[in-house]
Amino acid sequence: MLKLSVPILPPSPPAHWWGLSHLAAMRPDYLGYVQQLQFQYIDIAHLQILNEHIFHVFNPDWVREILVTQSAALIRWERATEVFSHSMGQSVLVTEGAQWERQRRMLQPGFAPKRVAGYAKLMTDAARTAFSKLVKPKNDPKVDIEALMTGITLDVIMGVLFGNQQVQDSRSVANSIQTLSQFAVSQLFKPLPWPMWTPVPAVLNARRAIKKLNQLIDHHIHAAPEPDQASEQGLLTMLQLTRDPNHPNQGLSDQELHDQIMVTFQAGHETSATALTWWCGLIARHPDVAARIHDEVTKVLQGQDPTPETLAQLPWLQASLKEALRLYPPAALLFNRRACQNIKAGPWTIPKGSLIAITPFVIQRDIRWFDAPDEFRPERFIYSIEIPRGAWMPFGVGPRVCIGQHFALLEMGLIAAMMVQRYRLSWPDDATWPKTNLGVTLRPATPMVLNITPR
Ligand code: HEM
Fold first, then answer.
1. At what angle do helices 145-162 and 120-132 cross, to 10 degrees?
2. Which residue, by CA, sits nearest to atom 43 of ligand 1?
3. How far is the CA of 339 from the centre of ligand 1 (A)?
4. Could you tell me the pLDDT band of residue 228, with boundaries at 50, 70 and 90?
5. Are 293 and 316 a contacting pair, CB within 8 Å?
């Protein structure tokens, strides 16, 4: 009897022009397109674009099976790695294999929960300074929340990396990061990306942005005092002094140090600022939730600054942040992965050489795990309704899970608590809810301008 050796593949939507019609369909609204795939095919869908086979996996158990159990058989999509290496060099976000393992081992202690808790004071100081500058006349309560949050998180990351140095020119630094973010995403969706030597405006702008950030990082690395084991350490000093636990006389090279600082700087503030921006908008739209948070913040903090310990006593605040991260995960899609071996996903086999796409934005809005998935309902994280592991995954899962997740959750919690302590946020009558803009982070497409009144 004839034995079939071709694996049976999961279902695919119809395609034309060798699959290029998929690219045309996804270009105007990538997340909407992937959401439709999930509605139609539920757990997994397969697209072929030219020679590339792409498997979108939506089942949270299968996602864990892939990213946790079979992680050793995956690398990140080469195109993404190349695009991000222009601005992030050979940093932990980009490297693979033994080089990544070594870097991750060396960075991990700097992001451990205990170490991160030591940054809490710096975080609350940055928020207090920003809020104290926010003097609003009574007849103009409108505030651009994204600019406010970006300013705070930039000051936090600068303080954490370099000690208490503030960014002189924070708006233009934030603009450079956003330019790179938009450029990176546009490069990912082109059939052929622009080489970096091409003299077209998009590439020239990206090169200018990279130059600006490189100068900023180099300036601060050189301005920092000599590392001193005994003194109170910023993250830069910690990275300068770090040694590979497996090879105790090996540290990071100068270039690696620069690249890790760059990645921490870029990955470490836009994500948290974006998450806080969406959270503020959602709180402004849901005064009932805001009132509950305000009650518990008032009762627990008694007018004091929040700390890692008191944050743990604020369940509504924590749940509302989790819910904001569910609806608007700043990393709406993970890096696509390349299968270096056949990969098992539930009953299916994803053939070696394929790409695997995992989209938290879509997985986290699956009606099977979240009732009324498009609604903001923090209570789902309070009344322990069964949520499968992996159905809430804003920080990814597996060995390449976000190294900064404890940092981000602490920072977001502290800033959010201080915001609620001081201000009532409300939604302007004439405003419409912003659409999403997919860059490296998922930002509001139009400014999130809210009414803010002191309590
Ligand atoms: C709300 C805030 C944040 C979110 C939602 C977020 C999300 C993520 C996600 C989903 C990944 C994994 C991507 C993948 O598997 O393809 C990741 C990786 C990473 N994140 Fe975050 N992140 C946040 C904040 C931070 C912060 C504050 C830092 C540093 C200070 C940071 C540094 C990194 C780094 C270095 C990686 C790469 C880790 C590796 O590949 O080993 N992130 N982040």
1. 140
2. 402
3. 21
4. low
5. yes
Full-model pTM: 0.93
**Rounded-to-integer distance, Cα 173 and Cα 169, Å:** 6
Pocket (CB within 6 angstroms of ligand 1) = 92-93, 104, 263-264, 267-268, 271-272, 275, 329-331, 334-335, 394-396, 400, 402-404, 407-408
For the cut 90, the answer to whether the pLDDT of residue 84 exceeds it is no
Task: Name the architecture of domain 17-454.
Answer: Orthogonal Bundle (1.10)
Nearest to 376 by CA among 322, 427, 334, 419: 322
The answer to whether the CB of 55 falls within 8 A of the CB of 350 is yes
Single-letter amino acid, residue 27: R
What does the buried/exposed string (b/e) look like for 9-18 if buried means 16 or more CB atoms within 10 Å of the residue's CB? bbebbeeeee
Give the strand pairing for 52-57 and 355-357: parallel
- If DSSP codes are grouped into helix, strand and coil, which group holds residue 162? helix
Does residue 367 have a pLDDT over 70? yes
3-state secondary structure at position 295: helix
- Are 270 and 176 in contact by the 8 Å Cβ rule? The answer is no
DSSP state of 376: -
Structure tokens given for 198: 């091409």
Angle at 434 between CA 394 and CA 174, to 5 degrees: 65
For the chain, which residues make up each domain, given as ranges? 17-454
In angstroms, what is the span from residue 330 Cα to ligand 1's centroid? 10
Number of residues that make up the chain? 455
Among the ranges given (204-208, 222-226, 431-435), the one the predictor scored with the smallest mean pLDDT:
222-226
> Contact 439/185 with Cβ under 8 angstroms?
yes
